[in-house]
Design goal:
The protein has about 325 residues and is mainly α. About 75% of the residues lie in helices and about 0% in strands. α5 packs antiparallel against α13 and α7 runs antiparallel to α13.
Length: about 325
């Protein structure tokens, strides 16, 4: 679905494309909430996922093209803030409401995006080195970020806290995860234009990996009275994720991918994000056969690789115009333009 988004906008026009996607977006949630048939429940789940992934590439592209460099990082972080708000709201509803009511409420916040101001160029532009290099870099960032286990942390929170033997109620801990993510995502949005994308992304990627290593060690060793350590490790992971590694790749997608291939390139990045989210969600139950602690060590290794890659290849985008950023990838590292 993400791979079809760029050509879909080019064929139908961005405004019509968004209208077609958004207008019926609440229906699959209502189907999931009220249908008595399991097959229709599955269908509603699939359709809601397709709608979400189709919308992903649009926001970063729009914000990058219509905003000024000095506030672009803040605006590009807004999308991740809304994700954090939505996730926190869902955690709270899952704790407080019957599941069908909580599911039905998800149909409410459908916002109609009325217009777009960019034009999608020809796909063949992706063959140029200055165009495909940033796409490859960001594709690798999204893949390694998903292999770093963020999907597991946010989707298996209750299971993780119960497995770790945390003394607090697992659902209360889950709500706390949502609060921490939201708070640090807002903090990240406030400082990203001051600190810069590159140092913030590198630092949070490193901290996420370190938190996973600490949690893994205590899960493997099983020290009596140390159940609070995995809880603290998860909270450190969540705070670092919200601060940088969560929102910044989306910001970079709007900044680094050149204008001629921005829609297509962002679709490719979203395709890999969605695909590896699926892979991790599918593989994780089998990965548990080697133990939760060992699984977290695998995730930590992906974050370590991501940190090294960012140090080697990621340029700073803060405060630079889109034309300056497009020139960054015209020559290979170490070559003059």
């Amino acid at each position: 679905m993400t791979l079809a988004t760029g050509p879909g906008m080019e064929t139908l026009g961005p405004k019509i494309f968004l209208l077609i996607i958004i207008l019926p977006a609440g229906i699959p949630w209502l189907v999931q909430a009220f249908t008595p048939y399991l097959s229709l429940f599955y269908l509603g789940r699939v359709v809601s996922c397709l709608i979400y992934t189709a919308l992903g590439p649009v926001v970063a592209v729009l914000i990058a093209e219509i905003s000024e460099p000095r506030i672009r990082g803040l605006l590009l972080s807004v999308e991740e803030i809304t994700v954090a708000v939505g996730q926190l709201a869902i955690y709270v509803m899952a704790h407080s409401l019957p599941w069908d009511v909580a599911t039905a409420v998800c149909a409410a916040p459908m916002i109609l995006v009325a217009s777009l101001t960019f034009f999608v160029p020809e796909i063949k532009q992706l063959a140029k080195p200055q165009n495909y290099r940033p796409v490859l870099l960001l594709t690798a960032v999204f893949i390694l970020r998903e292999l770093g286990g963020q999907y597991v942390v946010f989707s298996y929170t209750v299971y993780l806290f119960r497995k770790a033997g945390v003394g607090l109620d697992a659902f209360v801990c889950t709500v706390l995860v949502g609060v921490v993510r939201l708070v640090f995502t807002v903090v990240g949005a406030a400082i990203v234009d001051r600190v810069g994308r590159r140092p913030l992304l590198i630092a949070t990627s490193l901290v996420c990996g370190a938190a996973e290593v600490v949690g893994a060690v205590f899960l493997l060793v099983d020290v009596p009275g140390s159940s609070w350590v995995p809880l603290a490790a998860v909270m450190i992971f969540v705070s670092s994720y919200g601060l940088g590694i969560g929102p910044i790749p989306w910001a970079l997608m709007g900044e680094l991918i050149p204008t001629p291939v921005r829609s297509v390139g962002s679709s490719v990045c979203n395709l890999n994000f969605s695909m590896f989210s699926f892979i991790i969600s599918f593989v994780f139950p089998y990965l548990l056969e080697i133990g939760l602690g060992s699984a977290f060590l695998v995730f930590a290794s992906a974050n370590a690789i991501l940190t090294l890659m960012l140090c080697a290849f990621l340029p700073e985008t803060c405060g630079k115009s889109l034309s300056d950023l497009e020139d960054t990838f015209k020559s290979s590292p170490g070559q003059s333009e």
